[in-house]
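Exercise 7. Given the encoded structure of a 150-residue chain, write a plausible sequence.
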């Protein structure tokens, strides 16, 4: 009986180690953001003038494109808003993927809808999150031309 329990323990222990070793949370890539060039924060709120908005857009695009072209780690945050004031916060990371190709990763969070609070029957605001990966030159051009509005 004692041999069976030792034998079963010997089988279970390695199985548990393997399960925890390959859990998605632990296998996810951890960014060492202290190694990234910091492009700062851009707040594209509706209270700023058109000229200032254009300057910010140019700086943001230049930061993303320069770091990607030079294959340098970079991070930058941008906040965009709908006409109603609902925020879309985008964190951009310029880095190499597992195959060594340089990409831009956008991790975004959007909150909707500020106007819900004005309704008689108040609804909770809804937050959604997502990730978009830009891999090719065409993807990067789409990001620079279409994703970054104005």
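Solution.
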């Amino acid at each position: 009986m004692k041999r069976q329990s030792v034998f079963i323990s010997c089988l279970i222990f390695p199985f548990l180690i393997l399960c925890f070793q390959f859990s998605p949370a632990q296998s996810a890539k951890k960014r060492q953001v202290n190694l990234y060039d910091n492009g700062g924060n851009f707040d594209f709120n509706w209270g700023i003038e058109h000229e200032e908005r254009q300057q910010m857009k140019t700086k943001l695009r230049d930061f993303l494109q320069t770091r990607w072209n030079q294959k340098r780690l970079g991070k930058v945050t941008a906040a965009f808003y709908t006409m109603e004031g609902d925020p879309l916060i985008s964190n951009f990371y310029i880095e190499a993927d597992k195959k060594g190709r340089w990409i831009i990763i956008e991790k975004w969070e959007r909150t909707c809808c500020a106007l819900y609070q004005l309704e008689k029957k108040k609804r909770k605001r809804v937050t959604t999150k997502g990730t978009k990966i830009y891999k090719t030159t065409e993807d990067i051009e789409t990001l620079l031309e279409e994703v970054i509005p104005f």
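Remark. Residues 31-147 form one domain. Students should compare their own answers with the one above.
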